[in-house]
Amino acid sequence: MKKQKGFTLVELLVVIAIIGILATLAIVSLNSARTKSRDSRRVADLRTMQTALELYYDDSSQKYPSPSTWALFNTALTSYVQGTALPVDPMNNSDTARYIYGFNTAALGSPTNYILKGFLETKASGLDSDEDADPVWATSTFVASYGTAPVLAGLDCDTPSDTGTTTPYAYCIGNPS
Q1: Which residues in 26-53 are b (16+ Cβ under 10 Å) and which e?
Q2: CA atoms within 13 A on the CB side of 73
Q3: Are the C-beta atoms of 46 and 171 separated by less than 8 Å?
Q4: What digits encode the pLDDT tens for the residues 69-87?
Q5: Across-strand partners of 99?
Q6: Which residues of 102-114 are buried (b: 16+ CB within 10 A; e: fewer)?
Q7: Closest listed residue to residue 172, CA positions, set 103, 100, 88
Q8: pTM (global) more than 0.90
Q9: Are 104 and 114 in contact, with CB atoms under 8 Å apart?
Q10: 122 exposure class (CB count in 10 Å sphere: 0-12, 13-18, 19+)
Q11: Which of 27, 26, 101, 23 is nearest to 64 (CA)?
Q12: Which of 66, 68, 161, 163 has the most Cβ atoms closer than 10 angstroms to its Cβ?
């Protein structure tokens, strides 16, 4: 009797199943890494904007910009960042307010305090060291955002659900006091 060469159908199905499981694990791991990468980029973007704000403050009689839209905010700070515009959210989704700039206009209409808020996709370790104090000047605040404008309570750094976004993690930096 002649011996058959090759694999049986069962052996092929087992190998295909194992390859499928390994591919699924690799994709899940890769998606997690991409999410963390986007969050790191958001934190870096907020720090870039914070540096630009502080440079603007030094050049503008110790006042922060008071734009009515994100486009005006971008125009005010463009000369303080590399490139031609402020950083854009890595997902580039303007339907959701991923970056928010809130400022206090009580001091003669010229802001002396601000909060920059970004929304992260994961609970990053940086959330433990961000600015969690909610501004006490919320009654005299204006908010400019990249994306859909949030409600005024969107400056709440502990309760991001006030902005209507489904993203649960708010990262805030700035000079709120």
Answers
A1: eeeeeeeeeeeebbebbbebbebbeebb
A2: 26
A3: yes
A4: 788 888 888 899 887 788 8
A5: 118, 146
A6: bbbeeeeebbbbb
A7: 100
A8: no
A9: yes
A10: middle
A11: 101
A12: 163
Sort 169 into a burial class: Cβ within 10 Å, 0-12 / 13-18 / 19+. middle
pLDDT tens track for 106-128: 655 677 788 888 888 887 767 76
Residue 175: which of 62, 88, 82 has the closest Cα? Answer: 62
Handedness of CA 156, 159, 161, 165 (dihedral sign): positive
Structural domain boundaries of the chain? 37-175
Give the per-residue SS3 of the chain. Answer: CCCCCCCCHHHHHHHHHHHHHHHHHHHHHHHHHHHHHHHHHHHHHHHHHHHHHHHHHHHCCCCCCCCCCHHHHHHHHHHHCCCCCCCCCCCCCCCCCCEEEEEECCCCCCCCCEEEEEEECCCCHHHHCCCCCCCCCHHHEEEEEECCCCCHHHHCCCCHHHHCCCCCEEEEEEECC
